[in-house]
Every structure is written in C-alpha cells, then in structure tokens.
Specification:
The structure is a single chain. The chain has helices at about 5-15, 35-50, and strands at about 20, 30-35, 55, 60-65, 75-80, 80-85. By secondary structure, it is an alpha/beta fold. The chain has a 3-stranded parallel sheet. The chain has a 3-stranded parallel sheet with strand order 2-4-6, covered by helices on one side. The longest helix has 14 residues, at about 5-15. It is globular, with a radius of gyration of 15 Å. The termini are far apart.
Length: about 90
C-alpha cells in the first residue's frame, strides 16, 4: 500500500520532470557568443507558467546569459555550460 510520503515523492517527480523546456526552443543559439538571456528567461517563464518543469541546458552548448529567476518546481538540468554576460544591463530583472 502506498504511503502518503511515497505519493508526495511520485507527485513531485511528475511535476518536476513532467515538462522539459530548452532555451534553444525559445531562440537561444548556445554558441557562447550570442546573448541568450531572453531565450533562457522565456524557457524559465514557460516552466513557471505550467506550474514547474525541467529547463534543459543542452550538452555541448554554451549559453551566454544575464540574470534569471528560478521558481518553485523548476529544475535546472545543466548538461552544457552557462556563461555570465559581461553586459551589466542583462542583470536587471
């Protein structure tokens, strides 16, 4: 018989991994030189709007980005590289 803890654990796994969002799907290049800030923020916003999910930074890609917020039930799955932008204006949320 399932316990309440087991149910909660399975529910959290479903919510966290139910949807996958990639900044590449929102226009990111992932080449390490193109500013991907808006695409990263859009992928995170999509995860937030669907009540959570996984934002995948793809293997072999380098995402150049400014600041971003990670909300509840959102997992950053970083298989590639995230570089911080040198443009200070990219850190205004």
């Amino acid at each position: 018989m399932f316990s309440f803890k087991c149910f909660v654990y399975l529910f959290v796994l479903h919510v966290a991994f139910g949807q996958t969002y990639s900044p590449l799907s929102y226009g990111a290049k992932g080449d390490g030189t193109t500013d991907d800030t808006s695409a990263v923020r859009a992928a995170l916003a999509a995860a937030t709007n669907s009540k959570g999910g996984r934002v995948l930074f793809d293997y072999g890609k380098t995402f150049l980005t400014g600041g971003f917020n990670v909300t509840n039930n959102t997992i950053l799955d970083i298989k590639g590289t995230i570089l911080g932008s040198t443009d200070n204006s990219k850190y205004i949320l």
